[in-house]
Automatic annotation (TrEMBL), chain A:
It is found in: Endoplasmic reticulum membrane; Membrane. It comes from Neovison vison. The chain crosses the membrane at residues 193-212. This is GOLD domain-containing protein. Keywords: Endoplasmic reticulum, Membrane, Signal, Transmembrane, Transmembrane helix. GO terms for cellular component: endoplasmic reticulum membrane. It is a single-pass type I membrane protein. The keyword Transmembrane applies. Its main location: endoplasmic reticulum. Belongs to the EMP24/GP25L family.
Automatic annotation (TrEMBL), chain B:
Potential role in vesicular protein trafficking, mainly in the early secretory pathway. Appears to play a role in the biosynthesis of secreted cargo including processing and post-translational modifications. This is Transmembrane emp24 domain-containing protein 7. GO terms for cellular component: COPI-coated vesicle membrane; endoplasmic reticulum membrane; endoplasmic reticulum-Golgi intermediate compartment membrane; ER to Golgi transport vesicle membrane; Golgi apparatus. Residues 25-107 form the GOLD domain. SMART domains: EMP24_GP25L. The chain crosses the membrane at residues 165-187. InterPro entries: Emp24-like, GOLD_dom, GOLD_dom_sf.
Length: 225, 203
C-alpha cells in the first residue's frame, strides 16, 4: 500500500476517477442484499488518503444480468478509526467515490451497505457493489498534474518515485510503533506469568501448611494422634 | 460489466482485508479478458488456527484452484476465456472463530503512468531508470505489506496468549484454594461419621 504525506496538487476530478474505474481492471465486485453490511479493514499509518471508487448494480432476473442501479439505491459508508471514532458517516448515490484521510495509525474499518430511499420499500433482489480502493500515491491523477502545471513527463515520474519513497518511510515508522506495542504485550505476558506463578506457589505452600496444622489439631482433639 | 469486457483493461491490483464470520462464505467476482495473467494471493491474519478455504472458478464454473484450510498461498493463472471469474473464501468449517482475511488480486499489468503512452514508445535513459526504480520500489512496498501482515498475525497470537494467561492464572489460583480447603473439610467429615459409628457399635 502507498502513502501520501500531503496532496500538494489537490484531489483529482471525480470524472477522472469514474473513468479510471470503468477502464481499470482492478475492481472486483461482491453480491449483497439490501441492508446487508460488508466491512473491510485498512491498516494504515496516519495521514493516508484513501479513495474508494464504487459502482452499484441491480440484478435483472428477466435479462439475467446486472444493470446499473437506479437513483433510489444509495450507498451508506461508515468509516471508523482505530479508537472507534467515526471518521466518515455519509450517504452516497448509486455510483461515485468516497474518500477519507486517516488521523491516527492503525486499523480502520470501512463498512458499506445499500439502502433504497424510495418510500422505505425493501428491495428483495440481488445487488452488486463494484469496489476499487486506492491509497496514497495511487490517488494522484498524474495526467491532471501535467496539464495543470505543465510539468514534463520526467518530472512527473520523479514525483511518483518521491512519493513512493515517502510511503516506504511512513510505513517503516508505523512498523516501529506497532513493534513497540507488540513488545509491550509480550512483556506484559512475561510479567503476568512470573507473578502469577510466584503467587500460586505461595498459595500452594500456605494452604499445605494450613492443611497440616488444621488436621493435626483436629486429630489431636479426636485423640487419634 | 459490459464496459469492462469491451475495453482491454490495462489491469491493476486490488488488495482488501475483510472479516469472515464463523460459518460464513464470502465471494468476490471480477471480469477478466482472455489472455490476462492474474495472480491471487491471500493470507489469514487473525482468528482460530489462522486458516481458511479458498476456491477460484472460471466463468464456466470450472474450478481453477481449490485449497482447504490454508494459512497463506499464491496462485497465478492466465485467463483462458472472457467472463466473470469468481473466488470465494469459506470459514464454514469453524464454529465460533471469525477470521480476518487479506487478499491481493492482481489482474494484468499496472496501468502506465501516462495513459496515452504505449509500450513501444521510446523512453530516454532517465525515464527507463525511473521505470526500473519504480518497479523496485513496488516490490519493496510489497514486501512491507507481507511483513506487516505477518507482524499483525504474530501480534494477534501474542494478545491471545496474554488474555489466556490472565484468565487461566486467576482460575487456577481459585481452584487451588477451593480444592485445598475442600479437601480438609471432606477429610474431617470422614472421621466425624466413623467416630459416631464406632461409639454405636461399642455400646
Amino acid at each position: 500500500m502507498t502513502v501520501l504525506v500531503s496532496n500538494r496538487y489537490g484531489l483529482p476530478l471525480l470524472l477522472g476517477q469514474l473513468l479510471a474505474l470503468m477502464g481499470h481492471g482492478g475492481a472486483f465486485y461482491l453480491e449483497v442484499r439490501e441492508l446487508e453490511e460488508k466491512c473491510f479493514i485498512q491498516e494504515i499509518p496516519d495521514g493516508t488518503v484513501v479513495i474508494g471508487n464504487y459502482k452499484t448494480e441491480l440484478y435483472d432476473p428477466a435479462m439475467e444480468k446486472y444493470q446499473p442501479s437506479p437513483q433510489w439505491i444509495n450507498l451508506f459508508v461508515f468509516v471508523k478509526d482505530p479508537e472507534n471514532k467515526n471518521l466518515l458517516a455519509r450517504q452516497y448515490g448509486p455510483q461515485g467515490s468516497f474518500t477519507f484521510t486517516s488521523q491516527s495509525p492503525g486499523e480502520h474499518q470501512i463498512c458499506l451497505h445499500l439502502e433504497s430511499i424510495r418510500f422505505a420499500l425493501f428491495y428483495d433482489g440481488k445487488l452488486a457493489i463494484h469496489l476499487d480502493m486506492q491509497l496514497g500515491e495511487h490517488t494522484n491523477d498524474y495526467a491532471g498534474f501535467a496539464a495543470k502545471d505543465k510539468l514534463t513527463q520526467l518530472h512527473l515520474r520523479l514525483q511518483q518515485l518521491v512519493e513512493q519513497v515517502e510511503l516506504i518511510q511512513k510505513e517503516q515508522e508505523y512498523q516501529r510503533w506497532r513493534e513497540e506495542r507488540f513488545r509491550q504485550t509480550s512483556e506484559s505476558t512475561n510479567q503476568q506469568v512470573l507473578w502469577w506463578s510466584i503467587l500460586q506457589t505461595l498459595i500452594l505452600v500456605a494452604t499445605g501448611v494450613w492443611q497440616m496444622r488444621h488436621l493435626k489439631s483436629f486429630f489431636k482433639a479426636k485423640k487419634l494422634v | 460489466p459490459a464496459l469492462l469486457l469491451l475495453v482491454p483493461g490495462p489491469g491493476g491490483a486490488s488488495e482488501i482485508t475483510f472479516e469472515l464470520p464463523d460459518n460464513a462464505k464470502q465471494c468476490f467476482y471480477e471480469d477478466i479478458t482472455q489472455g490476462t495473467k492474474c495472480t491471487l494471493e491471500f493470507q489469514v491474519i487473525t482468528g482460530g488456527h489462522y486458516d481458511v478455504d479458498c476456491r477460484l472458478e472460471d466463468p464456466d464454473g470450472n474450478v481453477l484452484y481449490k485449497e482447504m484450510k490454508k494459512q497463506y498461498d499464491s496462485f497465478t493463472f492466465t485467463a483462458s476465456k472472457n467472463g466473470t471469474y469468481k473466488f470465494c473464501f469459506s470459514n464454514e468449517f469453524s464454529t465460533f472463530t471469525h477470521k480476518t482475511v487479506y487478499f491481493d488480486f492482481q489482474v494484468g499489468e499496472d496501468p502506465p503512468l501516462f495513459p496515452s503512452e504505449n509500450r513501444v514508445s521510446a523512453l530516454t535513459q532517465m525515464e527507463s531508470a525511473c521505470v526500473s526504480i519504480h518497479e523496485a520500489l513496488k516490490s519493496v512496498i510489497d514486501y512491507q505489506t507481507h511483513f506487516r501482515l505477518r507482524e499483525a498475525q504474530g501480534r494477534s497470537r501474542a494478545e491471545d496468549l496474554n488474555t489466556r494467561v490472565a484468565y487461566w492464572s486467576v482460575g487456577e489460583a481459585l481452584i487451588l484454594l477451593v480444592v485445598s480447603i475442600g479437601q480438609v473439610f471432606l477429610l474431617k467429615s470422614f472421621f466425624s461419621d466413623k467416630r459416631t459409628t464406632t461409639t454405636r457399635v461399642g455400646s
